[in-house]
Amino acid sequence: MITDKAAKAKSGGGRRWEHPIRNKLEDVYCVADTEKKTFTRPGIIKKKKGGGKEVPASLYNYSGKRLTENYLTGSETLAVRQMYKIKLLALDIDKGSKYRYDYIGIIHALEEIGLCRYIKLLSSDSGGLHIYFPLKVAVNSEFLHVSTKAWLQHRGYEVADGTLEIFPGPRRTEWKINSHGDWQIEHLARCFRLPLQEGSYVIDEDEGIVHNSKERFWLEEFDLCANSQDTEAFIEYMENPTVIVNQDDVEPDVVECSKPKPKKKRGRPSRVSKEQFALKQHMDKMGVTPRTYISELRALVKQGWTDTSQSNTLIGAVAILASYDNRSMDEKDLAKAIQWEARRLPGYQEYASPQTKKDLESASKRSWAYRWAKSVIKYRSRINGGGKLRSVSA
Q1: CA gyration radius for the chain?
Q2: Cβ-proximal residues to 163 (8 Å cutoff; 6+ apart), any chain
Q3: pLDDT value, residue 7
Q4: Termini Cα distance of the chain
Q5: Which of 6, 28, 17, 8 has its CA nearest to residue 218?
Q6: pLDDT of the residue at 180
């Protein structure tokens, strides 16, 4: 058995600090495929006074050594972000979910596409459930999420936060002002809690505790499950899924994941960050259309204003949809459309702040709606040289 002393051992002479669990984590999360060979800004889970948890992102990337040491010693409760490729699929079912004690059908549904071995864990003291499906080969993270979500929705299961979540998950899209004073898009991958930290245990079919050994999980059980999956069947499904994505009151959509034709290589446009351009190239390689993302935006907009702190997210969704549906609009007309649509959404009078209402009624070019219109049109034209929205799919 690997001891804590071995985990803390220091290697001299500039040599790499070796540890079996470090090697396994870097392999599963495909750290070698990242530009800096590090774990991108992992989440650090902190308990709130009133219960629940918050997951603030670290300000820095973690090396494999730092993440492994903190994970093994328990000095931090860590959640890792997905990389562009991964060897893991996991389901997150919260304690209050309708599937918490009725998840066998979900497991059987995934078995039909080749995922026939899994490890079941209590996620933490909260009583939630994490179900791990180890994979033998690395697959595209966003491709994995889209195809798995499509299959579960096709089988009638609701995939939503707090009910049934999939890791790797969708990238969260945010708009921020850069150093040039322009609005730019930022894509953040979701974090997922590493297994067998405080309050987490491997459990059996009757939910009895089996163990909480990180070494046994990563170095024995993970590989055993990965090697027992029907990998060929699962890859075949991922390469050729044409199933309907069912969402409540949202127009059904087809997830087209066939391989795209090779495209001529082009240089990175000026003033577009390396991260944005890399994401554009990545989405092109995936061949995934933006329809799923647009459907999610339409569902968000349909809910309307539900909280005073959602102005940026909701107005951004309105702006992207208005631009997507009316591609011939100039900035002025698009800004007016954003203002009109945002003000007519349910809950506007109750939840929009006085400052937001004032801004949405302003005709100034410095208003929120006008800046959004300018940003959406400029961003999509820079990335695509046209009017496609693929650059903001997440």
Answers
A1: 22
A2: 93, 94, 97, 98, 99
A3: 46
A4: 42
A5: 28
A6: 56
Give the other-Cβ count within 10 Å of 225's Cβ. 19
| 232-241: long-range pairs with CB below 8 Å, 24+ | 232/114, 233/113, 233/114, 234/113, 234/114, 234/115, 234/135, 235/114, 235/137, 235/139, 236/114, 237/113, 237/114, 237/147, 237/151, 238/139, 238/143, 238/144, 238/147, 241/147, 241/150, 241/151
Q: Exposed e or buried b for every residue in 28-56, given b needs 16+ CB within 10 A? A: bbbbeebeeebbbbbbbbeeeeeeeeebe
Q: Tokens for 338?
A: 């954003």
Q: Among 325, 333, 321, 331, which residue's Cα sits nearest to residue 392? A: 321
Give the whole-angstrom CA distance, residue 261 versus residue 375.
30
**Of 389, 339, 386, 331, nearest in space to 361 by CA:** 339
Query: What would the pLDDT profile of 166-175 be if each residue is shown by its tens digit?
Result: 999 876 655 5
pLDDT for 93: 95
pLDDT at 376: 76
The per-residue pLDDT of the chain, averaged, comes to 76
pLDDT lower than 70: segments of the chain: 1-14, 47-52, 171-188, 241-294, 326-328, 378-394
The whole-number pLDDT of residue 385 equals 39
Q: How far apart are CA 200 and CA 13, in angstroms?
A: 37
Which phi and psi (to 5°) does residue 127 adopt?
90, 5
